[in-house]
Design goal:
The structure holds two protein chains of two kinds. Chain A is an all-alpha fold. Chain A has a single domain, classed as Cytochrome Bc1 Complex, Chain C (Up-down Bundle). Helices cover 71% and strands 0% of the residues of chain A. Chain A has helices at 2-12, 15-22, 32-36, 39-58, 68-77, 82-109, 118-140, 145-158, 165-173, 180-212. Chain B folds into two domains: 16-45; 56-162, Rieske Iron-sulfur Protein (3-layer Sandwich), CATH 2.102.10.10. Helix content of chain B is 19%, strand content 30%. In chain B, the strands form three sheets. A four-stranded antiparallel β-sheet of chain B has the order 5-6-7-8, with no helix packed on it. Chain B has a three-stranded antiparallel β-sheet with strand order 1-10-9, with no helix packed on it. The longest helix of chain B is centred in the N-terminal third of the chain and has 28 residues, at 16-43. The chains are: A mainly alpha, B alpha+beta. Chains A and B meet through helix 4, helix 5 and helix 6 of A and helix 1 of B.
Chain lengths: 226, 172
Amino acid sequence: MKRILDWVDERLGAGPIWKALFARHVPEASGPAAWFYTLGSASLFVFTIQVVTGILLAMNYVPSADHAHDSVQFIETQVVLGRFIRGLHHWGATFMVVLVLLHMLRVFFMGAYKYPREVTWLVGVGIFLLVMGFSFTGYLLPWDQKAYWATAVGTNIARQVPAAGEAIGLVLKGSEELGMATLARFYAMHVLLLPALTAGLLAAHLFLVVWHGISEPPSRSGGPPP
Amino acid sequence: MRTPIVDPERRPGLSRRAFLTGAIAAVGGLIGAVLGGGGLGYVLSPLFRRHGEEWVDIGRADEVSPGAPIKVDFTVRKRDAWTTVERRASAWVLTADGKQFIVYDPRCTHLGCPYRWDRDLGRFLCPCHTAVFGVDGRVVMGPAPRPLDRFPVKIVGGRIMIRPEPVKSERS
């Protein structure tokens, strides 16, 4: 094993990259405060689970008004471990929102968004909005009563925008009525558009985290502010 | 006196770093096994789905009089994942004694034309290429390469049940 790794390393010279990623210095926090620093990694981990389980679910799901609900029931009752995989995706989605929000609060209250890490923060805000998008589009896909009416409410909220509201609602729904077109475009956004955008922003976010290093917990040791 | 860099009280054996590395590897391995194993089971799901033997009721046994084959139409409901596909199908049913039943696939084994029963000749005749089959299904004449295909059949409570997939007959 070591010889294989050495062989690869000799050709790629990836040692410094590995060091930069996994052997980098992190703030020396201890006690409860140290746990706040795990929220970003936790979000990334849950996102990975969402990707894996999402790919699996897509293998048995059909985004069509007359098949969506039945195909979900098929996953629940016929597919081996289908209920487990769907459960992971369902709860992962909820945890994703919670973790990303907590991560955001951690960064905000510790002032970790400040110079020179403003861009990391802005990219993170973008990722947060994408997670909201995942939640909104994914909620419709089971195509049950809750999914349908939640999306009806969601799209109606979007229609309250002055002047442009009707147009926004129409673009969101894909047609006058919430139906086939809505389900198709929500599915496309959920599994194609949003993951692509998230992959890009996530790469930028992680690069910036490593590039800047993680900020120390705030302290008064630097003296009183001017 | 220089203080020793290494704590003399430190017991030899597992260091903190080694413990954490091992713990992370173990937990990571467990998560990987659950996700990987679960995912694998999910993907391989079709392998584990049991293929139920679906028997179709095609009619009453006492409606078939011995020696007089009749053509029976029936509906096959086939489950396709979460949908059910209905298909009309037919079969030739005959019996010699009212106990043992034979059910033939209604397609000629030559090129799949629907054949008919000729009462006077006591043979099945195919209109397409003049294949002729005996009442036992064997080829009497013509281009058919093998005897008529049969559906597996059983009698349950006076009803004729078949499995809607014909069994290919052996070339004779």
